[in-house]
Specification:
Elements lengths: L2 H15 L23 H4 L2 H10 L3 H8 L8 H32 L3 E4 L1 H5 L13 E5 L4 H10 L3 E6 L2 E6 L2 E6 L5 H4 L2 H8 L5 E3 L6 E4 L1 H17 L5 H13 L4 H10 L3 H15 L11 H14 L7 H12 L1 H9 L3 H5 L14 H15 L1 H26 L1
Parallel strand pairs: 1-7, 2-5
Antiparallel strand pairs: 1-2, 3-4, 4-5, 6-7
Helix pairs in contact: 1-3, 1-4, 4-5, 5-7, 10-11, 10-12, 11-13, 15-16, 15-19, 16-19
Length: 401
Amino acid sequence: MKLEEAYLLEILGNHINGTESSLRMKNSSGVENNLFSKGNLQEDIDWDRLIELAQSHQVGAILYAQCRSFLPEQYAPQLVKQHAMSVSRFVRRKEMMRCLEDALNKEGIEYLLVKGPEVAACYPTSFLRTMGDIDIVVHGCDKEKGHRMLLDMGFYIVKIEDREWVYGIGDLHVELHDHLFYEQVVNDPALMAFSDQVWAYTAAGEPGSTRRILDWNYHFVFLVAHLKEHFLADGVGIRQFMDLVIVSNTQKLDFGWIYVELEKLGLLDFGRKCRGLCASWFGVPVPVGEPLSSQICEEVADYVMSNGVFGFQNEENTVRNRINQNGRWKALLLTVFPSYGELCQYDQYSFVRGKPWLLPATWVYRIFYGLRHGKATLAKQMAGAMVSDQVLEKRKQLLEK
């Protein structure tokens, strides 16, 4: 593991534990780390790489909050902007949620929230926990009604393909679900049965609201299951592991019940390893966590850090996800001509958001941009479409160590 990856993990651990960061690194035993030769992070750290890494995992605002007192001044404007953007998105997302909740109540649609907005509320500073979208779960009979409601509110359609109903307004996205997992993706009867029980683990929200509140024990099991699906398929970032720690630290969880449910799902070993990784990376005590060697922790950290927050930074993930959804040859075609929904997720193609008619022009722009800047990347993705099964096997072996 490189210095910047190790230092970012320590900074995130400081944030989780409510401690200050400094220009000295310490390992889990409190002993100063010798990863740097000059004994001074100010001289050894590649701040450009550290900031790029933090931004790829959408933790740039946390990096600034933890390091602002000793941040080299030439990097301050970049991270101040990141911090301000996080505050802005938080305010706009909160207002959007208020409007969504009013509309859902008015339509009489029972719903619950999972992942991002619920987990963010557990963080020491909620606006520092960014999110790509807001996941809203409704009953299957209400999904079409929710679709019409969102369009009436001014949302544009990002993607409606089988299970994925994604909507946008500006740069904010909403995903509308009627299941936590979908059979065509997980192909796991036990996980589907667990998903079907979700409403039984909810409680009523505020009086007059149609919102249901998901039990945190059930939610934690879901987060572990969701993390494994992404770990093996389209990639998982460091933030998803942080979420497990934050929820463990802030909620009164019944790990006896959680471990029984994880075992039913065949996820007990993975869940324990996740907690062991978190203990190593973030310096947190994890009861009943799986003790892991430093080598395994570093190998998994290298893979996770290479992904970025949603796996987009790792080309293997993008290609494998396309193959799973479309088959090998169609995936090869989509590598060259990505869908409108996929392009909307990248900032460099932000001009196409809400304007699907610009898709052909965006393809042309992407091809010319690739010819000028990224021929090797495109060629590597196309080659990857032919060998992607090896990727899954490699990740399974990593989990089994």
